[in-house]
Amino acid sequence: MDEKEFGTIKGWFAGRLPDGWFTGVEVTIEDDQIVVLGALPELKVGSTPEEKEGAAAGRISRFREETRGERIGIAEEAEERFHKFVTWGAKLGGVTKRFNPGGGGRSSGDRRVMIGRWWRRGRGRHGAATPGAPTTTSGTQVF
Prior knowledge:
This protein has a four-stranded mixed β-sheet, covered by helices on one side. By secondary structure, it is α+β, with helices and mostly antiparallel strands. The protein is built from three helices and four strands, in the order αββαββα. The radius of gyration is 17 Å and the shape is elongated. It has one domain (3-104): GMP Synthetase, Chain A, domain 3.
């Protein structure tokens, strides 16, 4: 990948990410995926290193759940536009977590799954075509 294409990808994410999600963001390319790693606002919680690490891990988990829908939508757009998988992550204090799959994860059988393709097949988050329908897929679910 040349610098111009990489610059386009970084610029697109800078303009596309919602304000307030991150205090800073790193966009990198690893093999066939775009990795978006954002820094969350610092916490003033905990008096010991263990408490601070636990609070950071909890805040990252909360961010992951609260932004899941929007992150999936942004990843779909990016995958369609740049033909690369998207993996998300967040860091806070000394804790860094990647969220897979954000498009760039692996499912059973080491098969690559892009978010857009997964959702378009009608399986959605729980592997069923309709809410409440029994799951017919076997193996590990992607989400």
